[in-house]
Each structure stands twice: as structure tokens, then as C-alpha cells.
């Protein structure tokens, strides 16, 4: 009999090959993501002794404590404010710079490199730099203010300014990445669409608002989602600049988890794990809302 029209059956080893390629990634996810997540869920419904050892199942006691804890509600407010103060300015400033750098000006490559430079700094390095800038005695910012006759400002110890100061440092850290993403999006815009709009009389602000911004919505949506998650998980700059102070004005949810579990010899892993579950829930809800509301306005060409 002929072999025409027959289909060769895949060999058993060949059918298993894709799973073999996925195995290293699955192992990494299992060890560093899934396992800690399951452990946190278990700890969140358990009590712990002064050494952090589980003392037994306590149900939703830790979660009930969160709801009735005024300090935790304050932490949620600080987290929300910090997220807004970092995500919105970093995207708006990044967009303004990206649009400005699209114009034909001298030394444009130099400016692009300079504005994108924050992306190369680690959180720890950038935080130390801002710690020097904010120093009330010898910081550059107060030095500039003294030249114009203004008294020194306690950037990190004034309860009314601390969150703004940490947020400004975070905006600077995120600016480089946002600028790179938006610049790449602008560089990929179809020239024929831009040229057609110009022939129709669109220019300046009208061109940017009616043509460029709609075409950039995929990049803007991406930065809103990732920037929000990044801000909700921020820790390093708060630890280095303010240690959550003054008066807990810069204590975000992630920093509160650290304080409950590790700072000052604390070992309240059950309560900290309950806070971590709340953080996970907030990230999921906010991300779902962003996809449900903002993605409808995204123009995928």
C-alpha cells in the first residue's frame, strides 16, 4: 500500500520537548513566586509567637485586625497618595520630554541620553543621590534656596513635605524608562498618517492631541499599568530616605509589611502576611479596573 495521504505520528519524545523547554521557567516560578504565595496565604490565617513561629490556625483574626486598625487605614491612604504622586507626573513629564525630543534641535541625542539616564540607576543608588540633595545642612537644594534668601527646608523630616520629596525622587527614577518607551512609540508612528494630518491643516497642539496621542495610547496604557504596580510595590527609596517617617507619613503598604515582619526585631509574620494578601488584592483589583476602563480608550492600529 502507498503512503500517500497518511500523517506521520509525532514521536513521544518530540511531544514532550516543549515541556522540557518550559521546565526551567516553571521551576523558577514555583520556587520564587508560587511557593512564597502559598506560604503567605497559610501564614495569614495563623498566629505567630515572638520568634515568628506559627502558633496555630486563627482564622480571619489577622484580617479583622486590619479592618479595625486605624494605622493600617492610614497606610492605605499614604499608599494611594504615593501612587498618584508618582505615576501621573512620571508619565506626563515623560510624554512632554518625548514630544520635545522629537523636534529637530541641536544636541538632541545628548539630551535623549541625559533624560534617559535615570533608567540606568538602581533604586539604592538613586536614593542615596537624593539623600545628598535633600540634606538640610549641606544639600544642593537648600544651597540653591539660600542663594535666593530662602531658609533651609527639611525635605525628609517635615511631615508635610516628606511624601512629596520621596515621590519626586521616585518620579525621577521612573522617568528614564517612561521616556524610552514613549520615544520608541513616537518613533514607530506611521509617517503617512502624520503627513496626511499636516496636509489637512493639523499642526502644533492640535496635531499632538488629535493624532499623536491617540496613536500613543498603547504605550501610555502600558506605562499606567506597570507604573501603578511599580509604585504600589516601592520600598527601597522609602527605606533609605525616610524609614517610613516622619510620623508614618511615608509608610506605604509594602513598608508596613516590612516593619511588621522584620524591622525592630518584629516577627509578626501572620499580620504581615495578611497585609501582603491585601496588597495582592489591591494590585489585582486596580489592574482589572485599568483594563476594564482604560483599555477601551486604547487605539491599537
Provide an overview of this structure:
The protein has helices at 12-44, 61-68, 70-101, 108-116, 123-133, 140-147, 162-187, 191-199, 204-232, 236-241, 253-261, 269-293, and strands spanning 46-48, 54-57. It is 68% helix and 2% strand. The model has no long low-confidence stretch (mean pLDDT 88). Helix 7 (162-187) crosses helix 9 (204-232). The chain has a two-stranded antiparallel sheet. By secondary structure, it is mainly α. The protein has one domain (61-297): MetI-like (MetI-like fold), CATH 1.10.3720.10.
Indicate the proportion of strand residues.
under 5%
- Report strand order across the widest sheet: 1-2
Uncertain runs are none
Task: Write the element-wise H/E pattern from the N-terminal end onward.
Answer: HEEHHHHHHHHHHH
Q: Which terms would index this structure?
A:
301 residues, 2 strands, two-stranded antiparallel ribbon, MetI-like fold, mainly alpha
Q: What is shown here, in short?
A:
The protein is mainly α.
